[in-house]
Amino acid sequence: MSTERKQAVPAFIDLAAQREKLGDSVERAIAKVLNHGQFVLGPEVAELEDRLASFCGARHCVSCANGTDALLLALMAEGVGPGDAVFVPAFTFVATVEVAVLSGATPVFVDVCPDTFNLDVESLEAAIGEAKKRGLKPRCVIPVDLYGQPADYGAINRIAGKHGLLVVGDAAQSFGAGLEGKKVGTLATYTATSFYPSKPLGGYGDGGAVFTDGDDRAARLRALRNHGKGPGRSDTEYLGLNSRLDSIQAAILLEKLRLFPAEIPARQECADRYNAGLAAVAKVPELMAGATSVWAQYTIVTEDRDALAKVCREAGVPTAIHYASALNCLPPYLETLKPPAGLGNAEWLAARVISLPMHPYLTTEAQDRIVATVRQALTSAKAGVADAAE
Ligand SMILES: Cc1ncc(COP(=O)(O)O)c(C=O)c1O
């Protein structure tokens, strides 16, 4: 594809542009693994874990097969199970609630804030009260760093301390972000992330990791991801999973990690340009004071989502909806517990959010074109509504 064509039709996430930047380094890294032959949990996996832990300042990084397992492994490491309530936001990717169910615990939904898209702490307090009323033991909260911005860990950790809750951060979308000078990976007792290809730090396949400062916790995670085998022994100590990371995936991620520090500010510049161009026509994303985002998604809120999606489609600007349904409205979760005030913000957002192309290789020309398309679409949609009202 020529550069001209690429700019005329921006990609939603341009992995090809990143691939070009990587040159043949990925091929060389893969060839190294093919030659040494340690395909699972090989030397690249250990190196990746070291580098990721130093990148974010966590004491340990334990890699695994994907971000869903990363969450599940953290719950398994703490023995979360039947009779326990696990609090999860109702507006997130479905994996966050899946793991609560898979652990044997009872999920309880919590509403989110309409401005940051992240867990609302007042709703969390109400959900804890509801769980107690139902005879459940409030055990764990899984705050999600939606679209790349950390949740309000200061407030969440305080509430968790008060009620004796474990905090497992779902940082599938936020690795590389930070809060008040601390990086994601160090904001909760456990932090789980995903290396799915479209994530800010994504591989060429599935992958995930758990970060923790606890030595015993890390040892347990290492055993659990490998069928519950104790360190350096073949004995099975725990009920575990097969959730090991492939050496080829680790080798790819090590190459991508070299580009990552420069990609984060490039995403921020794109978000700044979008914010400046779109604040007058839509509700643009807000960062909490002290928070940085890695902008896994750039997502606006508008009453005219369908009209906007149509105009963008016709203009060759890809859009996506993350997520079209609050989790409590999905068939497996219709009966899931929720706080007495409900999940109004999650449902409101699900009907109004729309994500625009976001990646570090989006040219300023393409960004300007996207802004102009969105502005024009939302201005005409509003004019149409005004005309109809006259
Ligand atoms: C918020 C959130 N949690 C968990 C996951 C699960 O990660 P994975 O797809 O690697 O299992 C994702 C991935 O899409 C996610 O966005």
3D architecture notes:
- With 390 residues, the protein is α/β, with parallel strands linked by helices.
- The protein is built from 13 helices and 12 strands.
- Helix 5 (67-77) runs parallel beside helix 6 and helix 7 packs parallel to helix 8.
- The model is unreliable at 1-6 (pLDDT under 50).
- Bound molecules: pyridoxal-5'-phosphate (PLP).
- Pyridoxal-5'-phosphate (PLP) binds at residues 66-68, 92-93, 95-96, 144, 170, 172-173, 194, 196, 206, 208.
List the helices and strands and how they pair.
Elements: H1 3-8, H2 15-22, H3 25-36, H4 43-56, E1 60-64, H5 67-77, E2 84-89, H6 95-102, E3 106-110, H7 121-133, E4 137-141, H8 153-163, E5 166-170, E6 178-179, E7 182-183, E8 190-194, E9 208-212, H9 215-224, H10 247-278, E10 291-292, E11 298-301, H11 305-315, H12 344-350, E12 353-356, H13 364-389
Parallel strand pairs: 2-3, 2-4, 4-5, 5-8
Antiparallel strand pairs: 1-9, 6-7, 6-10, 8-9, 11-12
Bound molecules: pyridoxal-5'-phosphate.
